[in-house]
Amino acid sequence: MVFACVHDAGRAQMAAAIFNLLANPDKAVAVSAGTRPDEHVHPEVVTAMKEIGVDLSAARPRLLTTAVTARASLLVTMGCRDDIPYLLGLRTQDWSLEDPKGQALDSVRDIRDQVARRVAQLVSAWGWARR
């Protein structure tokens, strides 16, 4: 399972972290990546995620490569589908979500909560939930 956005410093990081909290690791594990990764996760994202008990302060954005997607069954882009290359044979979804970079904390919380709802629906629909 790969969550991707351009900089891998916001939405994709949130989605992968929430996914890994909700999903049974024997069934699926998520990573995040970007086509032009930043140096670190946006500070406002780190703050919003800490509020729900997830520490992304040590998380590092990574480059989206075929090695990252090699074992994935699904690629979810975060409203940036046009900036993510098509990967032959990989099922994809695009979630149109606002970029949290530079947003006020209340807006980042709203984006985080939208991500969490979508991730929960995805985990349930694919049968990946923890028991």
Descriptive report:
With 131 residues, the protein is of the alpha/beta class. Helices cover 34% and strands 12% of the residues. It contains four helices and four strands. The protein has helices at 11-22, 43-50, 66-69, 105-125, and strands at residues 2-5, 31-34, 74-77, 91-94. The chain has a four-stranded parallel beta sheet, covered by helices on one side. Strand 1, helix 1 and strand 2 (31-34) form a beta-alpha-beta unit. Helix 1 (11-22) packs across helix 4 (105-125) and helix 2 (43-50) packs across helix 4. The longest helix has 21 residues, at 105-125. The radius of gyration is 13 Å and the shape is globular. The model has no long low-confidence stretch (mean pLDDT 93).
